[in-house]
Amino acid sequence: MTDVQTRTEAETTHQCASTGTTSTRRCILVGAGALGATAVLAACGTAGTSTNPNGSDFDANPAPAGSTAAGAEGGGDSGDTGGGSAEVLVAASKVTVGGGVITDKLVVTQPTEGTFKAFSKVCTHQGCEVSEIKDGQIICRCHNSFFSVKDGAPTSGPAQQPLAETKVELDGDNVVVSA
After folding, report:
1. Tens-place pLDDT, residues 122-157
2. Which long-range contacts (CB under 8 A, 24 or more apart) does 106-114 make?
3. What are the residues facing 89 on neighbouring strands?
4. Which of 14, 95, 100, 173 is most buried, by the most CB atoms less than 10 A from its CB?
C-alpha cells in the first residue's frame, strides 16, 4: 500500500508559483479552477451601459422626470402642447380587442371594446419580462406564467401575484398614463 500525502490548495498554489513550472497536472487544474471562478464572478458584475440584461426596471441612463422614455411605442411624443404631461404609451389602433401591446415599460391591453388597461411587463414570479399576448393572456415564457388581459391576475403557472396595474385613459387616438 502506498502512503498518500494530501496538500492544501494554498500549498499547491505556492508550490506551483515557487517552482516556476506549471506543467504538472495539479498546477494546471488549480489554475483552471481559479480562472473559472474569476469568469463566474466577472459575469456577476454590472455593466455601465444603458441596456439591462436582467430585464428589471433599472435604467443606467434614466429619462428626466416628467419626460417620456425615448424608445416608448407611440413615438415617445406625448403630443403635449404645454398643458399637462400625459405620457403616450401606444396608439389605440395598435391595441386589439382581447389582446394588447408590450411597450418599453408596460403591457397595454384592451379587454373589451374601448376599455384600456396597462400592467407592468415584469412578471411577479421571478422578474422576467412578459414576452407575448395571445388568446386573452399575457404570457411570461421564462417559467410559463399566464396573466389575464382584463386585470393582470395570474391564470396559470408559478406566478401567484397579479401584474402591477397603471391607470391609463384614451386621449384622442392614443392610450396615455392617467394623471
Report:
1. 999 999 999 999 999 999 999 999 999 999 999 999
2. 106/166, 107/133, 107/138, 107/163, 108/168, 108/175, 109/133, 109/138, 109/149, 109/150, 110/149, 111/136, 111/149, 111/150, 114/170
3. none
4. 100
